[in-house]
């Protein structure tokens, strides 16, 4: 048993000598639009902030995961404005906890391309229909992320596009999110 343990330790230390683990914080702007019949067709400004960790498997390939608090703003548009114009606030704010898991290409280079799935959980799902959307929006969202980073270590400038695959609406026709994220990150380790 000891021999297997020592062989495993030697293998891991030899392998991780080339790999690197990094941590950091990030913040930026969200431009979000919900594709659906009842929602405004323009991008609305929100914000996102959180942390990230990535592991360089080689100089070219790495894996990155993040935990982000992401604010999505939208506006409900309807054809019955004269009847229900003042019935409730049409501006809705959805707060998500998002967890992207990304493959990084050219991970140690100046320009890094990343992509992968993102799972999001609605943090304010307990608010009622008049406040936000207990009845309007589902609790989860599944998306795909594609982005690029400019690595000016320790500062990172990033931009990405997020395609929502899940129907996040609770009623009526299908509603999917589209999001552009722009921001700065600081790699602290």
Structural features, described:
- This protein has 189 residues and is mainly β.
- It has a single domain (19-77, 86-187), classed as Porin, CATH 2.40.160.20.
- Helix content is 10%, strand content 56%.
- The protein contains two helices and eight strands.
- It has helices spanning 2-16, 81-84; strands spanning 20-35, 44-56, 61-75, 91-105, 111-122, 140-152, 155-164, 176-187.
- The chain has an eight-stranded antiparallel beta barrel.
- A hairpin with a 4-residue loop joins strand 2 (44-56) and strand 3 (61-75).
- The longest helix is centred in the N-terminal third of the chain and has 15 residues, at 2-16.
- The radius of gyration is 20 Å and the shape is elongated.
Order of neighbouring strands in the sheet with most strands: 1-2-3-4-5-6-7-8
Average per-residue pLDDT, rounded, comes to: 80
The best one-word shape is elongated
Rg estimate, integer Å: 20 Å
Report on the biggest sheet.
8 strands, antiparallel, barrel
Spans of at least 5 consecutive residues with low confidence: 7-18
Tally of strands: 8
Strand content: over 45%
Counted by DSSP, the helix tally is 2
CATH classification, class level = Mainly Beta
Q: What's the assembly state of these chains?
A: single chain
What CATH calls the topology is Porin
What's the helical proportion of residues? 10-25%
Structural class: mainly beta
Identify the CATH architecture: Beta Barrel
Number of domains: 1
What is the terminal-to-terminal distance?
35 Å
In N-to-C order, the SSE pattern is: HEEEHEEEEE
